[in-house]
Specification:
Layout lengths: L3 H8 L8 H5 L12 E7 L9 H7 E8 L3 E8 L3 E9 L3 E8 L5 H13 L10 H4 L1 E8 L5 E14 L16 E8 L1 E6 L3
Antiparallel strand pairs: 1-6, 2-5, 3-4, 5-8, 6-7, 7-8, 7-9
Length: about 200
């Protein structure tokens, strides 16, 4: 007598993908982990102090990417009360929010403050040219074996905000280690590396 699984597999038809051996285990492909990524500057802002890739990467703890993924276009109303849609584009700008854990050398804090200063000096309001102030960044997502599976490139990134902790408190056990940096980018590109 044939096993149930053999009868189901030979029958064809609907829902044949509900089969562990045939499809579900999917050659033991892994899920992508959220902690397997690397973010870096391809081109840091030219005129700004940059602490170097090792300090930047080891102190960076979190990256949030905000992109509007909706498409845009137009719609036309036709006789008979029908509405037709035609999609013509998508937005490619967005924001990056980076979180760092800085140390007593204040390398990240100084980097963000110097970037703001080069945009508009606090005393003189002097500003350097845009080409010297923008940066290009990239982010790699990897699988658990640290093989790159996706690559994002962010073009013309510029600082929006990076608040400094200037307060004094009475309690011990507090720190000034957390540094937030938000940037806007004009365009991004996605490269799928293992499809």
């Amino acid at each position: 007598m044939a096993a149930v699984r053999d009868l189901v597999r030979s029958a064809g038809g609907y829902m044949d993908f509900v089969d562990y051996i045939g499809y579900v285990r999917d050659d033991n492909k892994e899920f992508l982990r959220g902690d397997m990524w690397e973010f870096s500057f391809i081109n840091p802002p030219r005129i700004v102090y940059y602490p170097g890739d090792i300090i930047f990467k080891t102190r960076l703890t979190n990256v949030n990417i905000s992109v509007n993924t909706s498409t845009n276009g137009f719609e036309k109303r036709m006789r008979g009360n029908y509405t037709l849609y035609q999609k013509t584009g998508q937005l490619t700008n967005g924001q990056l929010a980076l979180t760092f854990t800085d140390k007593e050398d204040q390398a990240i804090s100084y980097f963000t403050d110097d970037w703001r200063q080069k945009i508009a000096d606090r005393d003189t309001k002097y500003s350097f040219r845009k080409d010297d102030l923008v940066a290009d960044c990239e982010m790699y997502y990897t699988n658990s074996s640290r093989k790159a599976v996706r690559h994002l490139t962010f073009f013309n990134c510029i600082i929006d905000d990076a608040p400094l902790d200037l307060n004094g408190v009475a309690e011990d056990g507090t720190d000034r280690a957390d540094v937030q940096l938000s940037m806007s980018f004009e365009h991004y590109d996605v490269e799928w590396l293992n499809v």
